[in-house]
Amino acid sequence: MPTLHIEHPIKDFATWNAAFGSFAVPRQQAGVLTERVVQPIDDDHYVIVDLEFATVAAAEGFLRFLQTQVWSTPANSPGLAGTPKTRIEDTAALSSP
Q: Which residue from 68, 29, 75, 71 is spatially nearest to 49, judged by alpha carbons?
């Protein structure tokens, strides 16, 4: 399943989480099937987000939305403290021995 993997530093989790929550409807409309947010245990000013989609195209489309409508506008991303690192990943097909 294609996953949009996002990592970035944040100012504080409460501010970041409120902004993340405000984009719940756009995530749903973009086809996000599942979402996972984690933080390193030794860095409460960093988040890692995985958003799963049915297709790579949907993941690419939502990444473009984030880049042009969210991260490019400080008012839309008040918790962001650095440049997000992103990658679209997919489940690897493993062969059995």
A: 71
